[in-house]
Amino acid sequence: MAGHMVSGKVERGVLHPLAVARGLGASHTGTEHWWLQRLTSIALVPLTLWFVFTVAQFAGAPYGAIVLWLKSPLNAGLLILFVAIGFHHAAAGLEVIFEDYIHHKPAKLTAILIQKFFFLVLGVVCVVSVLMVALGR
C-alpha cells in the first residue's frame, strides 16, 4: 500500500516504508541524483586542476603550439572528459535549483528541459570543436 491508514482511508503523499529504507524520495531518484552529483564533483577536481595548469602553461603561446598540444589523444580525451563531466555536473546542479525554487510545475519542467537542451547543445559544440582541432579539420 502506498500510504498509511488513517480512519479507514489511505493517506496519500506518505512514502511507503520500503521507499524510505531504499533512500528514495517522492521522485524516486533523490539518492541517485545526489551520488551522481558527488561523483562528478570528485571527477572534476583533478580535471579542473589539469585544465587550469595547462591553460596557465599556454599563456601567451601561439595558436600553433596549442593545436599541436591538442593533437595528442591524451590531451584531447581529457579535455573532452572535462567538458562532458563539467556540463553534466552544471546541468544537474541547476536542475536541483529549479526543482527547489520553481513551484509552478509547467514552468519548472520548461526550465529544466531548456537548461538540459542548452547544456547538451553547448557540450556537443565543445566536443566537436575539440575533435576538429585535434583531427586537423
Task: Summarize the model shown.
The chain has 137 residues and is mainly α.
Give an overview of the whole structure.
By secondary structure, this protein is mainly α. The chain has a single domain (29-134), classed as 3 helical TM bundles of succinate and fumarate reductases (Up-down Bundle). Helix content is 74%, strand content 4%. The chain is built from five helices and two strands; from the N terminus they run E-E-H-H-H-H-H. The protein has helices at residues 17-22, 30-57, 63-70, 73-101, 105-134, and strands at residues 4-6, 9-11. It has a two-stranded antiparallel ribbon with strand order 1-2. The longest helix is centred in the last third of the chain and has 30 residues, at 105-134. The termini are far apart.
Largest sheet: 2 strands, antiparallel
* Overall geometric form: elongated
Strand order of the largest sheet: 1-2
- Would you identify the CATH H-level superfamily? Fumarate reductase/succinate dehydrogenase, transmembrane subunit
- State the separation between the terminal residues, measured CA to CA: 60 Å
SSE string = EEHHHHH
The helix fraction, in percent, is over 70%
So how many helices? 5
- Name the poorly predicted regions: none
Structural class: mainly alpha
How many domains would you count in the coordinates? 1
What portion of the residues fall into strands of 2 or more residues?
under 5%
CATH classification, class level: Mainly Alpha
What is Rg? Answer: 22 Å
Number of beta-strand segments? 2
What's the overall average pLDDT, rounded? 86
CATH architecture: Up-down Bundle
CATH topology name: 3 helical TM bundles of succinate and fumarate reductases
